Amino acid sequence: MTRISVEFVGVLQEFAEKRTMTLKLPASGSDLKVEEVVRELTNRLPRRLGEALMDPELLSPRPNALIFVNKQEISALDGLNTKIEENDKLVFIPVSHGG
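The chain above was modelled as a monomer; its predicted structure follows.
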């Protein structure tokens, strides 16, 4: 099991119905990636979070949220393929879109 902490900021906190949580996920070695964590969160938490987090066309959270792993934005790492280790902290920050 890999234990990580997750924090939601702004409207994502409202949709998740919590600000922080500890998530325990099965993982063999260090095979756990950000993408898998996102999928698990959208399965475990209220549907509104998945609808707000995931882009329906791309099936990806990237256009709708900044994702940080241990204070580094995942685009500076390996994107959704960034490996997650025991006790890592993920932070999800919504991206505001204007028109």
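The beta strands are 2-8, 20-25, 65-69, 72-73, 89-94.
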